[in-house]
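Chapter summary example: a protein plus cytidine-5'-triphosphate.
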Amino acid sequence: MTASPGKRILLIIGGGIAAYKTLELIRRLRERGISVRAVMTQAAQQFITKLSVESLTETKVFDDLFALTDGSGMGHIELSRDADLLAVAPATADLLAKMAQGLAGDLASTLLLATDKKILAAPAMNLRMWLHPATQRNCAILKADGVSFVGPEIGGMACGEHGPGRMSEPPVILAAIEDMLKHDTRIPLPAGVLEGRRVVVTSGPTHEPIDPVRYIGNRSSGKQGHAIAAAAAAAGADVVLVSGPVALPDPLGVKTLHVETAEEMLKEVEAALPADIFIGVAAVADWRVAKVSPSKIKKDAKQAPSLTLVENPDILAAIGHQSKNRPALVAGFAAESEKLEENARAKLAAKNCDMIVANDVSESSGVFGGESNKVCIFTKAGKESLPLMSKQEVAAHLVAKLAAMLAGSGR
Ligand code: CTP
């Protein structure tokens, strides 16, 4: 484990019996050279005192939303801006619910909403509260929003029950914090950077019909493509999303066109041009059935039917090689289960792209259908590896990078 001297943590202490362990966490963080500023909820102060926390952090503890500068010259937004990372320990069911809903009724929840830094939550609660669908739903929302979790552990609880819900021990939380501090902890908010720009995105799988009821498809959920379209819209762009069949809502503020097949997708993408940026995220089926049966193929024949496949148009390559209407930037994904860099670079060249985002889709990676993604971005200028992050965070990074490339291109 590498030390993180000079780093600053904003520690949000929730109201749970595990708060006593947070005192030990503060000591361990400070031993590692990490400075700690603490915020306590009112409930936390029922379990441990402000005096203990102030003694261990050697600084004032904050707990009042309405004491705007709290006598220390620090407004509440600065409290989170000033930190490298926010850690919530114990993260109670109540705090997690507030975070998931974006509530901001007290100082702790306001800081968690107003932050531009990553958040690590260490949940601690009674096992029934932890296993309750509401808590599980809130945690799923938070994970999708990019919040990291450490624990809870399974074990005996202060309430006498046994099960999941114990807060992780301070060394485990410390290790998770130090791991996060190794990477960039800022959440990129590319607000306005694509103002006045037009972006076309493809997302989801395509379904290639075999007969009226069957099709060839793949496991793409569309989560990454939809997140990119949403991030581009949040950055001010006029966005057209051409989506294959997915079980996701249309992203807010995005013109979403629904298609089934690769050929329909290509048609809609071409009709959406001209654009400044094209991002091909869809897992387009490489082949379609040469002759779609107009009626359902019956299984009563002696032999299983044989399907003749023909290659589908490559949408990304078609847009990359456009002579008249080529967007200033063309970006694609490379779903690879082996030889990531070699295959990604080959796609960058063959499809005439400005960026290829390579991700490992081997079964063990959990990328297809999952909430997170670990990608490596290849451009003609170089390569950038991003740590494992939520699909929303990947989207924000890509949009920020494409916006910077577009600004740099002078177009
Ligand atoms: N793509 C596309 N049209 C296709 C196939 C792929 O637009 N018919 C795009 C995808 O949206 C993605 C990129 O091309 O941005 C790479 O997709 P991928 O499945 O990784 O590669 P393929 O080109 O299909 O090559 P292979 O399956 O052999 O790896």
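Key point: The CA atoms of residues 156 and 162 lie 4 Å apart.
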